[in-house]
TrEMBL record:
Record family assignment: Belongs to the short-chain dehydrogenases/reductases (SDR) family.
Domain of life of the source: Bacteria
NCBIfam families registered for this protein in UniProt: PRK06701.1 (NF005214)
Originating organism: Microvirga subterranea
Protein's name according to its UniProt entry: NAD(P)-dependent dehydrogenase (Short-subunit alcohol dehydrogenase family)
Entry annotated with the keyword Oxidoreductase: yes
Any one GO molecular function term: oxidoreductase activity, acting on CH-OH group of donors
Comp. bias intervals (Low complexity): 1-17
InterPro entries tied to this protein: NAD(P)-bd_dom_sf (IPR036291), Sc_DH/Rdtase_CS (IPR020904), SDR_fam (IPR002347)
Keyword vocabulary terms for this entry: Oxidoreductase
Disordered: annotated span: 1-39
Length: 286
């Protein structure tokens, strides 16, 4: 089979993380596929990494279902403002909050801003992440390990700790892990390790909060077309992104967002400590 038969996307790359959705070709598909039915009516959600990719699709879908949304992002201001516009187009209120969730002070400030703007918090989506592929474990510096863990798992702790005083009975926490937590990734050792940690965090927190009637679940996406991809990999790798799945293509953010909606609303009222796997048929979950 020639390389062209494995092509799923136009070759492209971006020079720095976080990537920009405005520079992607084609743009990821965030549009919800169905009319809203009020499943999150009058709810307030906080979505980290909500400016683009999966986070954008989740924010827009939540808004369609009646939620107000606070989105946290690092420094992708243009993408964040576009997500705000899209949320407001759906009739939702939106606040954008820039900063690094790896900083516990900022995590507290982000939650405080959400409470100040909307008066409560019903759904927390821990979603922000970064990844830095290396071909050899010897190339992974202590600084990179610390940075990846600080964003991908420390940040989940910080934001969740800040949110806990505001989460009441019936609230939901949704943690983004990854297919790499289950099947590994030879060039994303530190990233995969953080995603495995998120699975354990998810299960343990679910047990802890069950008595408070707060549900905790996760989503483990497979290869999804988001700004993290062209800002992580070279053009040749991007060109065949997702081709190794049984469905032979990458997923789109709006194919993942419904998993978050299901876990956020009462449809999943008897589910906690679980992980959903929108991954194109990669049968590795357990």
């Amino acid at each position: 089979m020639s390389p062209d038969q494995n092509q799923t996307l136009p070759p492209q790359t971006q020079e720095q993380q976080p990537g920009r959705e405005t520079q992607m070709n084609p743009r990821p598909d965030y549009e919800p596929r169905y009319p809203g039915s009020g499943r999150l009516k009058d709810k307030v959600a906080l979505v980290t990494g909500g400016d683009s990719g999966i986070g954008r699709a989740v924010a827009v879908l939540f808004a369609r279902e009646g939620a107000s949304v606070a989105i946290v992002y690092l420094n992708e201001g243009e993408d964040a403002q576009e997500t705000k516009r899209l949320v407001e187009r759906e009739g939702g209120r939106c606040v954008t909050i820039a900063g690094d969730i790896g900083d516990p002070g900022f995590a507290r400030a982000a939650v405080d801003r959400t409470i100040k703007e909307f008066g409560k918090l019903d759904v927390l989506v821990n979603n922000a992440a970064e990844q830095h592929p290396k071909k050899d474990i010897a190339e992974i510096t202590p600084e990179q390990i610390e940075r990846t863990f600080r964003t991908n798992i420390f940040g989940y702790f910080h934001v969740t700790q800040a949110a806990m005083p505001h989460l009441k009975e019936g609230a939901a926490i949704i943690n983004t892990t990854s297919v790499t937590a289950y099947r590994g990734s030879s060039e994303l050792l530190d990233y995969s390790a953080t995603k495995g940690a998120i699975v354990a965090f998810n299960r343990s927190l679910a047990q802890k909060l069950a008595e408070k009637k707060i549900r905790v679940n996760g989503v483990a996406p497979g290869p999804i077309w988001t700004p993290l991809i062209p800002s992580t990999f070279d053009a040749d790798k991007v060109k065949s992104f997702g081709a190794n799945t049984p469905m032979k293509r990458p997923g789109q953010p709006n194919e993942v967002a419904p998993s978050y909606l299901f876990l956020a609303c009462a449809d999943s009222s008897y589910i906690t400590g679980s992980v959903l796997h929108p991954n194109g048929g990669d049968a590795t979950e357990s």
